Amino acid sequence: MDELLAERVNRLLTGPTGLGTSAARIPNALAAEPTTTVPPLPEAVPSAAEAVPPAQDVVPPASRLPSPRRKGGHFSPGYAEREWGDGSFPPLYCPLTARVDDDLACEVNDRLVAWAEEVGIYADQLDKFRDTGFGRLAVLAHPETDDVDPLLFAAKMNAAWWASDDYYADESDLGATPTKLPPRLALVMSAMDPPPGAGKYTDRLEEALRADPVLVAIRSAAQHLRRLAGPSQVMRICGITFQMYVSWTAYAAWRHLGELPPVWRYLAARQHDSFYTSMTLIDIVGGYQLDANLFSEPRVHRAVMQAGTASVIVNDLHSAEREAADDLPDCNVVLLIAEEEGCPLREAVETAVEMHNHFVRGFEASQKELAAVPSPELQRFLLGVQGWMAGGFEWHGSTGRYK
């Protein structure tokens, strides 16, 4: 098997070149038999890691891959069981953090706070916004580069997403209300992806976009995106953001009706409203482009969804205690497990930790399987996903947002 794979890779790398020959350089290694086995999901969890059909042909990018822009290069420090919270709960199996640079994080965060003041989000809470440290999150989650500008872009994009969540979906003291959420999100989509002009009606749209700080922030972050990304990357970010918003409308309906969804239904929505969205920025921040077909290839998609879901469970774990104190708590996997199973909160936490660890091990297995694909861009992207999981874990343990 190894000899066959080596022969196939060699043929791919030495195949014809020039205009019109990209189809002759398709990495069939994606369709090879898996070299690892993804562990089965616990019985109560929807099958997010089912076996996938053989991959379709994928055309690799033709452009030369730039070198990583990180001092000392980018590397994998591996995986380990890591303590979290007060250390009394079972550990989270997670990648180890590749880079902690407090000086760089401070620089990015200072610029981010100045940008937030300029666009108008969190106008009366800038000190709290500074302490949240979205700039630090960007530095932790994107260890491939030391370049402040793309790191600032990642911080802006995440802060804008969080602002739309806070102002429109979650925080009633900031004006969030379930019944207004869908039309507000429709405007967010127009801020990111401007519709064709319609005369005086577009003028009215423009007035609305300029009057709302959240929309100003989203549009500003999207403009920064367009300075750094190619067209397919821009539309990837837009499409996946809008996909995330569909899940938000489900949460809003549950809150409006005073209903708690079953865990399986929550997970079905949460897997499309996860840090998968943030992970789609990885190649843009790194200064290269993962081909759209490779990004969407079923095994790659599954791997990144595993990582995104694992990372958002970390978010649920850190926010469970605070949300449990609300009169109408947000949907949270820990609280939903406790309600559905009729078990103590600690037992629900243990179940959520087990679920998280399953998804991380699934990603790790997928990463090993996809190592056979002869695409430097893909390998860098998967290493970036690994780095994002580690950085997200590190940030959740230090930010004041969930304390």
UniProtKB/TrEMBL annotation:
<dbReference type="InterPro" id="IPR008949">
    <property type="entry name" value="Isoprenoid_synthase_dom_sf"/>
</dbReference>
<feature type="compositionally biased region" description="Low complexity">
    <location>
        <begin position="51"/>
        <end position="62"/>
    </location>
</feature>
<keyword id="KW-0456">Lyase</keyword>
<feature type="region of interest" description="Disordered">
    <location>
        <begin position="51"/>
        <end position="82"/>
    </location>
</feature>
<protein>
    <recommendedName>
        <fullName>Terpene synthase</fullName>
        <ecNumber>4.2.3.-</ecNumber>
    </recommendedName>
</protein>
<dbReference type="GO" id="GO:0042214">
    <property type="term" value="P:terpene metabolic process"/>
</dbReference>
<keyword id="KW-0479">Metal-binding</keyword>
<dbReference type="GO" id="GO:0046872">
    <property type="term" value="F:metal ion binding"/>
</dbReference>
<dbReference type="Pfam" id="PF19086">
    <property type="entry name" value="Terpene_syn_C_2"/>
</dbReference>
<dbReference type="GO" id="GO:0010333">
    <property type="term" value="F:terpene synthase activity"/>
</dbReference>
<comment type="similarity">
    <text>Belongs to the terpene synthase family. 2-methylisoborneol synthase subfamily.</text>
</comment>
<dbReference type="InterPro" id="IPR047945">
    <property type="entry name" value="MIB_synthase"/>
</dbReference>
<keyword id="KW-0460">Magnesium</keyword>
<dbReference type="InterPro" id="IPR034686">
    <property type="entry name" value="Terpene_cyclase-like_2"/>
</dbReference>
